[in-house]
Amino acid sequence: MINSESDSERFEALSRELLNSGFTVRFEAHGASMSPCIRDGEIVHVTAVIVSKLRKGDIVLTKGHSGFRVHRLVFIDDDKNLFITRGDCGQQDDPPVRADQILGIVFAKELRLGTKIVTAKLNSFDGKLLQGAARVQYLASKLLRMVRRRRGNTSNLLGALVFAAALFAVPNSRAQVLVDTNPSTNTTADLTGPGTQTLTFNHTTSATANRALLVGVSMNVANSPTTAVTGVTYNGAALTLVGAHNDAGNTRRVEQWYLLNPASGTNLPIVVSVSVPSAATVGATAGATVFTDVDQTVPLG
Q1: Which residues, in sequence order, are CB contacts of 11 under 8 Å at separation 6+?
Q2: Cα Rg of the chain (Å, integer)
Q3: How far is 52 from 30, CA to CA, in rounded Å?
Q4: CATH code 2.60.120.380 region(s) in the chain
């Protein structure tokens, strides 16, 4: 981010001036120390903050002897003017800093959803949904890159799936694996435990060759962190889990499931079973897309 000492000094001076004048500062974060909350190359937004209002868990921009850091506060002692940060992926605390070495607080970051760049506030509900959507888009695009063509070559897919507030599909593939002609489907619901709750929606699948159904589930598990999908069925046939991921704060969870050669037909039911252990409400979204001409023996790389 900062290439030289003179650049560092200019960045600090400009940032302080802008923040003290009530403006926000945005810049590209480098490194993986805050992944997955802030990933390498993401644009973060920083605003001024009254240091006495900072709390453990806030992500702050600091300037210490070793340079700039965007890390999370893990210890605060206002009386001793002592603040300690640590990266979410770090095993050790950073050197302590004083209040005057805290330039501001990170309140948002920029995300790419499909072809659009959106700003997601880190601590807002809507922002967390956007972050979950972006994460699922990343996982889906990674999964799509793993899908092989029938002839065994890696497919050059130019699509991504987002299972969050809505599911977006970009069926711009020029490879042999294609998105089914029927559109993706999705549903959203609030699930209240304890016990197993279900999301049910219908999907239409064409009678195309060598099909594979992918179902993604995105959940806000802040009120019940151990919530997980226990099973997914399509027209009564059980899907297989591809993988699952929780964010660093254990407040958002995404899962993907798949089924080879799903039955063709109109408005066939998809049932997602979710175990909510506590008497809490979990917001959940599920979506489905079918791909055609997928290798039925080794569908995933």
Answers
A1: 1, 2, 27, 68
A2: 22
A3: 28
A4: 151-292
Beta bridge partner(s), residue 268: 203
Distance (Å, rounded) from C-alpha 132 to C-alpha 14? 33
Ranges for all domains in the chain classified under CATH 2.10.109.10: 5-111
CA distances from 198 to 185, 217, 228, 270 (A): 16, 12, 12, 10
Spatial distance between the Cα atoms of 125 and 230, rounded to a whole number of angstroms? 25
Per-residue model confidence (pLDDT) at position 113:
72
Task: Compute the distance between CA of residue 181 and CA of residue 232 in angstroms, rounded to an integer.
Answer: 23
Cα separation of 84 and 69, whole Å? 11
Share of the chain above pLDDT 90, in %: 50
* CATH code assigned to 151-292: 2.60.120.380
How far is Cα 172 from Cα 163, in angstroms, rounded to an integer? 18
C-alpha distances (whole Å) from 101 to each of 29, 73, 85, 236 are 18, 13, 12, 59
pTM for this structure?
Answer: 0.49
CATH number of 5-111: 2.10.109.10
pLDDT, tens only, 129-183: 666 667 666 666 655 555 444 334 333 333 333 333 333 333 333 345 778 877 7
pLDDT of the residue at 155: 32
- Determine the longest span between alpha carbons in the chain, in angstroms: 70
Distance (Å, rounded) from C-alpha 299 to C-alpha 294? Answer: 6
CA dihedral 224→245→199→279, nearest 10 degrees, is -10
Tokens of 266: 């109109």
